[in-house]
Amino acid sequence: MRFSSSLATSVACSCLVGQVAAQTFRRLGTCPTLGCVFPPDQADFLPGQYFDIRLEVHAPLNGSEASLVPSGNPDTEFTFTIEKEGGGAVPVTQFFGVEETEIERWNFTYYETLFTQTAETPVFVDVAAKAYRKVALYEPGNYIATLNYYGDSQTVANWTVRAGSNQRKAKNTILFIGDGMAQSFITAARLMAHKIVNGKYQTTLAMDKFPITGIQMTHSIDSFITDSANSATALNTGHKSTVNALGVYADSSPDTFDDPKVETMAEMVQNLLGGGIGIISTAYIADATPAALNAHTRDRGEYAAIVDGFLNGYQNYSWVDWKGPDVLFGGGAEQFYPNEDSFLGRDYYAEFANQGYNVVNNATALAQTPNDERTLGIFTTGNLAVWLDRNIYTDNLNVSETDPFGGEGAAIDQPGLKEMTLKGLEILQTQYADEGFFMMVEAASIDKMMHVLDYDRALTDTLELDDVIRATIEHLTRTGDLADTQIVVTADHGHGFDVMGSVDTVYLQAQDDDRMKRGAVGTYEQSGLSQYVNPNTSAPVGSDKNAVYPNGEVFPNNFDPRYTFLQGACAFPDRRENYIVHKDGPRTPAVPLTEDEDDEDYYANPEDSPGGYIVNGTLPVGAPQGVHSLVDVSVFAMGPCQMDFAGVYNSIDIFFKMADCMGLARYEAPTNEASNSGSSNSTSSNSASSNSASPNSVAPAALNSAAPNSAAPNSAASSNAAQWQTW
Amino acid sequence: MRFSSSLATSVACSCLVGQVAAQTFRRLGTCPTLGCVFPPDQADFLPGQYFDIRLEVHAPLNGSEASLVPSGNPDTEFTFTIEKEGGGAVPVTQFFGVEETEIERWNFTYYETLFTQTAETPVFVDVAAKAYRKVALYEPGNYIATLNYYGDSQTVANWTVRAGSNQRKAKNTILFIGDGMAQSFITAARLMAHKIVNGKYQTTLAMDKFPITGIQMTHSIDSFITDSANSATALNTGHKSTVNALGVYADSSPDTFDDPKVETMAEMVQNLLGGGIGIISTAYIADATPAALNAHTRDRGEYAAIVDGFLNGYQNYSWVDWKGPDVLFGGGAEQFYPNEDSFLGRDYYAEFANQGYNVVNNATALAQTPNDERTLGIFTTGNLAVWLDRNIYTDNLNVSETDPFGGEGAAIDQPGLKEMTLKGLEILQTQYADEGFFMMVEAASIDKMMHVLDYDRALTDTLELDDVIRATIEHLTRTGDLADTQIVVTADHGHGFDVMGSVDTVYLQAQDDDRMKRGAVGTYEQSGLSQYVNPNTSAPVGSDKNAVYPNGEVFPNNFDPRYTFLQGACAFPDRRENYIVHKDGPRTPAVPLTEDEDDEDYYANPEDSPGGYIVNGTLPVGAPQGVHSLVDVSVFAMGPCQMDFAGVYNSIDIFFKMADCMGLARYEAPTNEASNSGSSNSTSSNSASSNSASPNSVAPAALNSAAPNSAAPNSAASSNAAQWQTW
């Protein structure tokens, strides 16, 4: 990565893709047997939701499962039937009225354990597969999908079509995602900015005022810790997936763009309701959470293709229409100006403009652009600067080569999440006054800053999200749209983080050794009160003693108090802690101690947190950052269907609740679409390498990947370039 | 402490009282000025809730505030007025119709910072004070209480009487408290015991099935981290307090039993409704959470007096009636059999029996005792054994001197929380079929095990609580009482804890050095699935592949899998981690390396977690354990008032919601009680040393404390015996 300054730390780290040397390596996550069905057992569908079917039969040639393969070759004569419960099993082609497809073949390798990885003895797996594209189930109930292979072996997948509503209750849906935002972040952010008198908050968060709260389980389909790609997939499609996968179930094929797709909320709102689509993030816009609105690839790292997909959709196989979002605001200019990181080297500012988009590249232009056109706003390379750097430590905005046109300069005139969100709202309200809209707003750097253990920046970006929510509600109240809008605020996963007390930073710095420095920590009654809103300290911005800024924003008025939070992660790389805000830009807690680019042995950064004490890590030494955690995250809901969001539920249920409120269920196949006569269509091109030749639909994996048979998700071939997974 | 075995670890640690060398030392937490009013500014009351008033004027004789004192002496001529908003300020005696009381005098010392503590230069504070006892406000609205002192100085306290309901909606209230149970514990416990297939839980927790969830803020009145005493006070009285305080606001007087009291839910249910009271805990029964139902002292460590208070109430000053609980089940036999740890050396088994209680001391007797008498059940010294030791590693029950009669032997026949809870329910249902009841059930060792970083025991006790909730709901359904019962499940605070992935324990043990061992950790897709419910492993108890035991209990069926959770605390002492269940009993993560009893320099216990890697601590080196954290905790509610529990609120609000549902507001002073004519009574004995002479009402502090002027909450005199605060 070419971002060298501290501000770009999280950008650089978020672009790494790969695996970490660790445990529970598996042949293919959702396929414990040798016969794989996607969607797998226990998949839920909205009535009429389009999806692809992928079938695979595996033949491990060595390793612990080799003896299970009768002939040493994968069964190419497998059959697949579907039964509407009680209706009898019928062949898939008959059930959906689709044509039979051809067998595909590939192979891949994987390691069974850390020991075999160390010994470099992978398992080779030969695969026979088929796919059926763009089918749908319209009748609620249970379906039994059965793959018969190797003679008497069966893999049974029980599918459920939920009885969703086709009666629309909400005109608009706004989904706010605080990436990584565990409730502990919200608690700490509240304490940081809101004043307490004798145990009573004098002001509270906008989130605290929501009438209904719920609890969301975030785990992946095949591992109990998720990344932001498959958690966003769950929220946008109702289907859990695998780490790195967007809008697909991850298969084992070499092509990362042929995995079986599932239809997204945004695709349905656009196609069924004619509604507007807004995608807004403080991340580079090809990042997983914004990408999940319409991307379909198991590799979130295909940024260039994802940006092309925002504009042109995914046409390499038969799939739903996509007209592009009406609002697309964020960072990631490197996928837009013509260069090696943009799709086929093209100028995507021009591509969007050619399709009628207004294009803006700074906060001033954003404020001035009209509301009556579709609008692309890309304001920097990489991620947008965080709130603390845009508002308090503004020298940190001077990051070279962040210019959104690829120049040497810095992107100084960046909007905040609030400016993007309110402008996006105005555009959608102007153009979709009747049809309504679905808007996703992501506060991405809550997660990115927590990864680098920059607690203060994670918490202030949490406060920024809260401020955006407050301003959004005020705006909708002014325009009279609040009652017709369902607002859902949640996270896609948590981080193990909490505040355990406070630190006398002056005492800590005055001590000579690490064990003495730990005496600066105060817990329980010695934690005292938050000093970040101390009215007796000088306030860098704003001056109200409750830290309420002139327009109603609530942020701390002292970011550098003597008594700071004792805060920390529950799993971490080596690092040094002095519990003082990082004034020079986002933190880099751990670095290799050599100049060798391949050095993956991370130690506490000697330049980080001067005067603090060393804490050795609990994560693998190749980990320069913290990681996601298991904890359930909170859901805050308001609007016509708010009661549906009470209680405890799985991430996928949020999709079904939101879709239900928008009335997105389809109980009949569309009659106005010839290709959908019967109950499905399947104009598939099922060879992994025979992608459509349309310029806008080339699957980049076919362009960039190695030989078709050499790449796979758990490929041993790529494991010697193992890199730390950071999102 | 005389408990020497590993099982008693948490008991021993929980008996330490004192301060840790740390920051934000304050003169008196809720009193930033020199004039103190208790209840302080922003206090909320249920209409008719009894409370005491304490006024203090401070004269610091040295330190940073000495110059603020006009004469060098505390003002003894201070005045105090109360105004119902808009009604004009009137003297307190006139407002409540109480007699004037006499000035009390004392002094105390405290340190202003860690630096002055190190230099042993305390501040001396001289105090003039008054108290008015057992008053109440019956009319909802705002009140302005004003203390005038030092001529023109004022301390204004705004009090609010909330418009609570006196219409009863629920017959019964059951409050389940998972001590320390952050949502991260619940998430991890769910994953440990409930099987997932392709991202869908096949079974879920009883807590997951509650219709309404909410979010509770847990902070103290004067510090942002709470202990279990003042958080339980908030839940039981609607008044936040100070660390260690039970049912009082903490004043600065030497007597720990003269602090201003507030009426508790249990007192109201008993006196206003004639309802039954059940108090059940897996802790020693004098521990803070059970004690808070009717204790009134700022020192939770006064265990002997608390046990006397369970039976006899608090009569040293005029206070509400108390007839004793109908069910009192837990540990802590050392306060019952006659010995130096029982109140005045008495036999409290006999004291309870003399007042008509059935007394049982083991699980067998508990099961057989009749339901038609009030019942005391004390089953061990210290805390009850945790679920994992009672059910899986049963050799650990052999802890000498846990015999409930003070013998040498072990308390082997201990009931679980479920046996205690279901028996308690039957007793209350039998005796209060018409009047209804209030029962508090605490899973105490969730917290105690997390303090010692024994994650597996904390999580299995979380599962035990969930099983008790499930069984309670089933029982109430059978008896037809579910619809009339409000059930509230919550925690009193959290711990910074989470699960971040998994650990290949075989790989970890096979590596030679600590940095290599960290390579055994798997995150994201390498976290895999929970191995604790692996159907392919041998099951020590139960055998169902979903780990559902014969009576519907859901626990893991393999506690010692190869792939375990990567779990950890966010602040911690030095310790070693091998991520393997501690089979020999609860963990002791850190110990002093010398035999010196006064050694408070804790290092990783050389005998703990063999083969693991060392993690150095972030807490002061005097900390042998983890600490409480800031994170909001979840609330799960079902019953007639369940909708009141949606959203985000403060701990005290739970009291108001529960009391509202029980109709406990009193809009008029009782007319059948002569002493309450007018709006209050105040038959106070206001000298700190002139306690009533009734044998059952002696305040032990008066017996045991040093000279009245030498002890105080932040006393410098006791700080050289500073000990680690552990609950």
TrEMBL record, chains A, B:
Domain of life of the source: Eukaryota
Name the UniProt record assigns to this protein: alkaline phosphatase
Xref: PANTHER family: ALKALINE PHOSPHATASE (PTHR11596:SF72)
Signal sequence region: 1-22
Keyword set includes Signal: yes
UniProt source species: Lithohypha guttulata
Ranges in coiled-coil conformation: none
Keywords: Signal
Region of interest called Disordered, as start-end residue ranges on this chain: 671-727
PROSITE patterns: PROKAR_LIPOPROTEIN (PS51257)
EC number: 3.1.3.1
Family: Belongs to the alkaline phosphatase family.
